[in-house]
Automatic annotation (TrEMBL):
GO molecular function terms noted in the UniProt entry: acyltransferase activity
InterPro entries for the chain: Thiolase-like (IPR016039)
Coiled-coil zones: none
Superkingdom assignment: Bacteria
The protein's name in its UniProt record: 3-oxoacyl-ACP synthase
Biological-process GO terms, alphabetical: secondary metabolite biosynthetic process
Gene3D superfamilies, A to Z: 3.40.47.10
């Protein structure tokens, strides 16, 4: 999707709980080895026991709205994405977030795309602003709290952290504008995902921890990510070796998977521009791309950032932003 700067990222926020589960604690519990935790480049995972994910999303959203100078009643669309359970008696999480924000008149929708949820929600919000002339602003939120997993949160690949993210999108100029956003899919990989729910015990109380994809699946994942990146760069009018691309920000999936995807999915000129994130968060469920937007400064004027997201199923999204 060619956006050409018509939509602005007016505010981006990351909310993390104060408590965390450190690599040292996980090593002491036998959940992870010292070599594995240090090799993946993750030293702690935030934990949000007792905080409802929808409240986490509201807290992130308020920060992003304040940053953007946008009132909740100006929102035309709220797109909320999540991976894990959103809490008891939360039957429609997007509407819970909208109500607690005071965005009572907006269309509140949910996006379930596993770890690509936040990126898919962002693409939907961009499309809404481009296509609906009455829409002035849109809000994207994500929230996940992996508090009741049947296994230690350090065991999956990648390790799972709790947190919420938010991004406010408006029309017109701003410090960071959307130049292009594109997605690609490979639904043939749906069968490579566990037949049992990845976050719940197996029948009979047995536990199976989600592991890394096999080599065949990894190759297909890399091809899919590469297609999304190629499409977004084409829509942005950029070649992989364009010197104005100053950073490539992959999802927070640990060093091993990031290094593989960087080598297999990206053109050589992009590989050296990869900026790793997630040392203090691990994988934030559906929120990795928005977390990277919140934590990293916008590109310098005239420069571009390439943001990559992916989720089981399989779907990948690439966002290209430009500094102004």
């Amino acid at each position: 999707m060619r956006v050409a700067g018509a939509v602005t990222l007016a505010g981006c926020a990351l909310w993390l709980p104060e408590e965390c589960y450190t690599a040292r604690q996980a090593q002491a519990n036998g959940a992870v080895s010292t070599a594995d935790s240090s090799g993946e480049g993750i030293d702690r995972l935030p934990t949000a026991a007792g905080t409802a994910p929808t409240l986490m999303a509201v807290l992130a959203a308020r920060r992003a709205l304040d940053q953007a100078g946008v009132r909740p009643d100006r929102l035309a669309l709220l797109a909320h994405a999540w991976v894990y359970d959103q809490g008891p008696q939360t039957w429609t999480p997007p509407h819970r977030v909208a109500r607690e924000l005071g965005a009572l008149d907006c269309a509140a929708v949910g996006v379930r795309q596993m770890s690509n949820g936040g990126a898919s929600a962002l693409q939907a919000a961009v499309a809404h602003l481009l296509a609906e002339p009455r829409a002035e602003a849109a809000l994207v939120t994500t929230a996940d709290a992996f508090t009741d997993l049947p296994y230690d949160r350090w065991r999956p690949v990648p390790p799972l952290g709790d947190g919420a993210t938010a991004a406010v999108l408006t029309r017109g100029p701003g410090r960071q504008v959307v130049e292009a956003i594109a997605s690609a899919g490979d639904s043939g990989l749906e069968l490579s995902y566990p037949t049992a729910h990845p976050f719940e015990p197996l029948p009979g109380g047995h536990v199976r921890t989600p592991g890394a994809p096999d080599r065949g699946a990894l190759r297909r994942i890399a091809r899919c990510v590469g297609r999304a990146v190629d499409a977004a760069l084409e829509d942005a009018g950029l070649a992989p070796d364009d010197p104005r691309i100053s950073a490539v920000l992959p999802p927070r999936v640990g060093r091993t998977l990031t290094d593989y995807l960087t080598g297999a999915a990206l053109a050589p000129p992009l590989r050296g521009k990869t900026v790793a994130s997630g040392r203090h968060t691990g994988h934030l469920g559906s929120g990795d791309l928005l977390a990277n937007l919140a934590e990293h400064p916008p590109p310098a004027a005239g420069d571009f950032h390439v943001h990559i997201s992916m989720g089981a199923g399989f779907t990948s999204t690439c966002l290209v932003t430009r500094g102004t």
